[in-house]
Amino acid sequence: MAILHLVWMAVVLAHGALTLTRPSVLHGATAVSDCPPGEVACADASQCINTYYICDGGGNDCPDGSDEEKGLCLAWGTGMCGMGHVTCKDGGSVSCYSVPYYCQFPQPPCESDLDMRVCEILENGELRALSSVANEETSKVGFEVVEMLYDLFLQQVNGTLDHPNCKFPYTLIEGQCISIFFPAKVDWGAARAFCSVIGGELLVLQQYDLFLALTRRLQEIDMVTDFWLGGYMENETIGWTWVNDAPVELGTPFWALRYTEECQPREIAIHGNLTLPANEGQCYHYTQAPGSPPLGHCLALTYGKFFYMSDEMCLEKRSPLCVATPL
């Protein structure tokens, strides 16, 4: 996955902010720079239109009809978010982004089924039939990028799979031998079995010093893979438990935040069972994982949540994060 993200970063560039304006005439010019930020040129270069009007179903804003080209419009909006938007899935949460906004990201913020040829069209700033963009993304990835991917892979392997005080494929982090086996992606159960095969167990992350050292290592080697931890919730009565049967500590500094459309007040406990609204009942849009009921029953560190812990669906595919006894 790290390799795929870097390829994406190499071929998808940033775009300007969106502004809603009426079509502007190009007077025969064909340079992409003739269109203001947030606009693209019609295929015949007759005028610029705002990306808001692409496939809006309101008739042809381009005289040549290139803003309503069938192939482009089939890719312009799919899924629950509708036309002109990307349905973004990150674990159990779903977000909606406009297509131009999503295409600005050098690395995807979440998983989507957007045809990246759409981003290629927006990058070039000129509308065209989607079929004519086939294979252009691949052709842009030259040997220089391949060499970069080779160097990145070696950097990640050297930073995760070897240390004289640990057996292969473990490395030493904060006194513990940890295997950051990023090439594999499996469900939580298979991840635990994989750790067992290589002489370890899914990582129990109880100490803050280890949590800090691990997340720093992942950031230093530009890791973008999601990982399974050795935590799970069999039922809400027992709560979150590590594979060594110890309870999982909830809250800061380990768990990720989540944004909610519905704001909720918070309460503080005073003298045992007495609770009072915090900050005079102020309403907050952020909650802290895990959810109740949980979004998933298995514990993970995900790149999208900056490697803070979160509850994820156990059958999703992530890499195993294993721990073993030092030599």
Secondary structure blueprint with pairings:
Elements: H1 2-11, E1 24-25, E2 39-41, E3 47-50, H2 70-76, E4 85-90, E5 93-98, H3 99-102, H4 117-124, H5 136-140, H6 143-158, E6 171-173, E7 176-180, H7 188-197, E8 201-202, H8 208-220, E9 227-233, E10 240-242, E11 257-265, E12 267-270, E13 274-277, E14 283-288, E15 298-301, E16 309-312, E17 319-324
Parallel strand pairs: 9-17
Antiparallel strand pairs: 1-3, 2-3, 4-5, 6-7, 7-17, 8-17, 9-10, 9-15, 11-14, 12-13, 15-16
Helix pairs in contact: 1-6
Could you walk me through the main structural features you see in this protein, from its secondary elements to its overall organization?
The protein is α+β, with helices and mostly antiparallel strands. It folds into 2 domains: 2-141, no CATH class; 159-255 and 290-324, Mannose-Binding Protein A, Chain A (Roll). It is 22% helix and 24% strand. Strands 6, 7, 8, 9, 10, 15, 16 and 17 form an 8-stranded mixed β-sheet that branches. A 3-stranded antiparallel β-sheet has the order 1-3-2, with no helix packed on it. It has a two-stranded antiparallel ribbon with strand order 4-5. A hairpin with a 2-residue loop joins strand 6 (171-173) and strand 7 (176-180).
